[in-house]
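Cross-check.
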Amino acid sequence: MSIFPKDFLWGGATAANQCEGAYNVDGKGLSVQDVLPKGIFGPITDGPTEDNLKLVGNDFYHRYEEDIKLMAEMGFKVFRMSIAWTRIFPTGEEEVPNEAGLAFYDRVFDTCRAHNIEPLVTLSHYESPLYLSKKYDGWMNRKLIDLFAKYAETVFKRYKDKVKYWVTFNEINVTSHIPLLGGGVFTPKDQLTKQDMYQAAHHQLVASGLATKIAKTINPEFQVGCMVASAPRYPMTCHPDDVTYAMEEQQELTLFVHVHAKGEYPYYTKRLFDRDNIKLDITEEDKHNLKHTVDFISFSYYNSKTVAKDPSKYELAQGNLYRGLRNPYLTYSEWNYPIDPQGLRYILNFYYERYELPMFVSENGMGAIDEPIEENGKLTINDDYRIDFHKGHLKEVGHAIEDGVNVIGYTSWGCIDLVSAASAQMEKRYGFVYVDRDKDGNGTLERFPKKSFYWYKSVIESNGDDLFNTEE
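Predicted model, tokenized:
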């Protein structure tokens, strides 16, 4: 008997700002991504510049039919994508939505449906309207709750018969650490307090609850989930100081899941907030909106994070957004990310033990430099490193299912090569499909399958059985 449920949602994930391109086409407004040509740690420009690879992305806007056909060839059951808020409301404050933007996503969803692929749609994936960021300082201002609710209601109504699965905010916890990326907060981080960042995140949590309420009113069959950036915290040693420090760090992350799953802040919030002198402005209406809880928990998982009370004695490692100490028991990618498949099983159990909601692994993958070669007259990538990464992680998903965790789906990140969010690089590739575009933006944008494409296709065809039946 297969370990994975027969209706398991196999697929891949992208984000509008990293793949669509067409940043100024058909009435689209600017988002914060359009002024971040070097990623989250680079400069903010006055407007779009030629060196911003995200302005073209992988040109999904014009090539979505080809891309979805490739996903169908792999056997995708689900495609996680985002709607660019600024395609629907270019500044975020319009009274009437942009019909050209709405029509584009109609075409995308219709194409998915034609290939029997279920769309999983993220409403806000690091794509805050630039106008709202400049005018209101993004999610620092409560005004965005109502503006987001209007946007959410618009797309829920438009696509109520085309989309079943929704996610409100991508990696919502990132706003408390990288406020421009997560919350469109234009004030530089070094001028913000922890109070400021958590207040912005609170406004998003309220908006998430309100959007969930609206969704259920429009279509009770909608399945609405939350999404957090997850990296389980490991103590560097068994010293109680390190163990306690890891617990506190894990609680800071779990707080965001708890609010979505339970409709209120967890018991340890007061201690965490007292530590940083945080006193949130929470209204009675806020509390009411938070009560609208999610149907499933989704999360990104790229690596675990090892921490210590005194980190000065240890070497640092890199990571996706959460970076910790170098764990001597793990191997590392060429970007110095820890590779830790067992951490995925751990975090699935960690969340499910607490909330017993269906779990969805909505991002997982390894960025690498791919070298095209010619085989039998065709270009390909022999990316065994990517196959090994996904095989290890998917086997741990299987083990979590054997543990009793209700895992409903898995979408690999960047299933078709796209531009990195953190660094705005093209050479940091995650996909099963190669896109001919280099670090300077040159190339034909032609697509061709990598070796991992056929491996993932086989995994899906076997409903995961190939992961356990093949020799190591």
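Residues 174 and 182 are 5 Å apart (CA to CA). The mean pLDDT is 96. Passed to J.P. for a second look.
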